[in-house]
Design goal:
Strand order of the largest sheet: 1-3-2-4-5
Shape: globular
Oligomer: single chain
Order of helices and strands: HEHEHEHEEHH
Strand content: 15-25%
Largest sheet: 5 strands, mixed
CATH architecture: 3-Layer(aba) Sandwich
CATH superfamily: Glutaredoxin
Number of helices: 6
Number of strands: 5
Mean pLDDT: 95
Length: about 140
Amino acid sequence: MPYPEYLVAPMRQELTALGVRECRTAADVDATVASPGVVMMIVNSVCGCAAGKARPGIGMALQHAHKPDVVATVFAGADVDATDRARQYFTGVAPSSPSIALLRDGKLVYMIERRDIESRSAEAIADQLTLAFDRFCAAPAGA
């Protein structure tokens, strides 16, 4: 049974206030992942590490010069079908929430799993993401 909307709404808003696109259905996920460029798909969660580490770290990272072309989110435990569909794109990675994936052409190129979030501060997560943004989202030299 999904979490009640009144419970997750403030946690959704933390990301949507940053301009993050919500994917509430499997079709939303498929359409978003099909977007050109690099897509960052965030699996949001009600847990403390999402609140104190992942969401603040994402907010800091999105201030970086290089960032994904599209930033989207599903909410584990609320957007059940959308979350299941997003996880189908995370090939070779066990389901975890929160988590943050970078995809290009529908293929996973980078992943931060819950175990990587639990043991880091929001600042360290932002640093990890900005390094990934520099690697996967920056235009190649001479382009």
